[in-house]
Amino acid sequence: MDAMAEPVAHPVTVAIERRIDPSRTAEATSWMQAGTDLAAGFEGFLGSGWVRAGESSDLWYMLYRFRDLPTLEGWEDSPQRAWWLDSGRAFAREVKVERRTGIEGWFDAPFATTVETRGPAAPATGPIQQPIPPAPPRYKQAVTIWLGFFPTNLLASWLLGYVPGFAEWPLIARVLLSTVLLTPVMTYAVLPAVTRLLRPWLQRAR
Asked: What is the pLDDT of residues 119-167, one digit of tens each?
């Protein structure tokens, strides 16, 4: 009898939306940074960050990513995180949590998402939680990235060809400049657009 295949672990990204008391912005800033620093000390941690929706908004967003669900739960169930959350209850109120898997994890409009809602609609026992659907197959992720990267890199190479003397630069300098320019373009514009365009194909059952 063949052994059952081990399930493939996928990185999990958690996006949290909070309401912050505007009169305690300085405290909240230090508190949010402390949370990301704490998470960084846990096994499987892959990155984190936080942003405000705007200067006049009380919406703050936090993002962190772990290697797989078990390492994520190691952080989420830890006494360190419980202490950190308790220390911010006076000025921070969590309103929505999204768990995302696959290449879309760092981008908006994910198609592999679970949403946990905290608020009047949630039962007192905890958040509403749905199972995390599997990420798209790796070949689909690779095709999606390539479809975004190829035309972007092609356009950038053509434009950089007009920079005087660029062709004579050392290879490492040319690659450094192009990657510095293309990384934010791919992250904030190209890949989110490509994943939205290809969502029906990416969501299709294996």
From this structure: 433 443 333 334 444 556 778 888 888 898 899 999 988 998 898 988 8
d(CA 78, CA 41): 12
Residue 144 sits in the same domain as residue 111: no
**Could you tell me if 66 and 159 lie in one domain?**
no
Residues 103 and 146 in one domain: no
5 within a domain of the structure (yes/no)? no
The residue range of the domain holding 161 is 138-203
Q: What's the CA gap between 9 and 134, in Å, rounded?
A: 9
Q: What is the pLDDT of residues 61-70, one digit of tens each?
A: 888 889 888 9
Measured between its terminal Cα atoms, the distance across the chain in Å is: 24
The mean pLDDT value of the chain amounts to 78
Residue 177 CA to residue 72 CA, distance in Å, equals: 35
Whether residues 151 and 96 fall in one domain:
no
- Tell me if 113 sits within 8 A of 13, measured CB to CB: no
